[in-house]
Specification:
This protein is of the alpha/beta class and 568 residues long. Helix content is 53%, strand content 18%.
Length: 568
Amino acid sequence: MQLLEITRERFEAVYEDIADGSEPALRFYLLVTVSTLIAGFGLLLNSTAVVIGAMLVAPLMTPIFGISLALVRGETDLFGRAIRAEIVGVTAAVVMSLLLGLLLGDFEPTAEMLSRTRPTLFDLVVAILAGFAGAYALVDEKISPALPGVAIATAIVPPLANTGLCLALGEVAGGVRSFLLFLANFLSILVVASITFVLSGMGKRFGVKAKKGDLLRRFQLPVLAFVLIAGFLGHSLWTIVNERKIAKGIEETLIRETSRIPSTRLDDVHFYNDEADNDERIHVVATISTPKILTPTQVTVLQDRLAEQIGLPTELIVHCVLSSNVSALGSVNNAIQQNLDGTFTKSGGSEMIRSIATTEQVIREYLSSDLALNLDWVDYVPRSPQRKIMLAHISGFRQPDAEEIRRLESDVRRATADPTIELAFSQLDRRISTAEGEIRYGWILGRQHSPETIERIRRMHADIVQFFDRQKAYRLVNTHVTRLDDSFHFLLEIVGPEICPRESVQALQAQLEKKFAETIALYAWSRIEVVHGPDGSLSMKELDRYFSRRQKENLPPEIPLILEASSR
């Protein structure tokens, strides 16, 4: 009794189905074309469902069974028809997908495409199991309805479609590897289906007159090719496993090291080894979210850590995406990472990282009602266990005074439960200028005033400018105005060889109040600054403006590039 017993009636039905499916007729090539187009669009759309649809339509698996059955039974006629159908079908699939890729032009490779350019021994195992399942489903009529599932598992057409698309992009290596995946599937199904047919008795029964050794002679070439493919895919699998080990080491190292930088996390990482240039270095590109750009020194430290971890020379490029963790008012816990139970880890990292996050949140809460100042980030300045200095980098229109800093320092100590923390501020002045001059926070007029009020202010400003135009020793460089408590308040920025006399300012104020019948307060901000030039006295601001406009014509070409780069 055979291991897989098959009756004559079932044999005749199976033989007829395989022979019909291996016939290189118009319907066969029509299905090849349709399935290739479906697979091509599925790969381009990165849609697994569409690719599965192409597997169900594809007719290329049946001719493989035809080749297997012909080799088992020694039938040259069936072998000729099946091998012709398979070769022409494979060629048509590659050409059709190539034309599709050329027609679409320059498209981006998708994950579905990339997954088929790196076949491994696992793909060979899947093809072996699928080949056995398909052949067994043909032999046993009780499980023949499982054939659609076998078609999905074998994946004959998608690698061929991927081959053509890779060639359309000019990626010959990717196309060759995709075709290798098809070849692995083809040989696996061929060999395993042949073994299944032999075990079912189809090689010696039902009219076959085979001589001893015929079967081994027929399968020499397929088995040899199968062994070679298995060896190549085994090496590919070893390479991928090694790469995944390196990838894990890179990711773990970067996560560990970036977690020591306040409010910084690793978002993505890629690496490659340029074997074509005989470069032994591992090139790593990491994307991180951070409140500030990492310095070259910090990147060098990360690079050295990676080299120690993976044991290979490493070149690291860090793509910094500026971000910051901000929580609602009254909260000093930052949700950094989600746990498996759905909860969030609060203010993860070391104690110092948590202190920095808490300090940042306390300062943000305080400044939320003060638009004149903005917190950029907080650094820890290591000094000693008894002194922990938190350096807050801020920008804005004004400087925080000592009382504010003392209050914030007290709030931070209370929130962190650490009485050794000290606060220091590093500030970048913010300047905004309009047609009316530079805007100073606290001296913004606003839009709630009537057109009549705005016109009166404009006339007052004209009288102020006219007054200082008559003063040879003093220059009015900027004027700020606001209206509070039914009074007009003017801040006058004045430069000159000495402080503008208070009597002159009071005389101007009295003149304006008399003319406009309004309560007016003038604040004279005097700066001892004057430039004596060939044409008289002027302010440094006026001199800078004059020469910067003239200098533009004579600047070396690299200066605009440097200025542009420094502003990023």
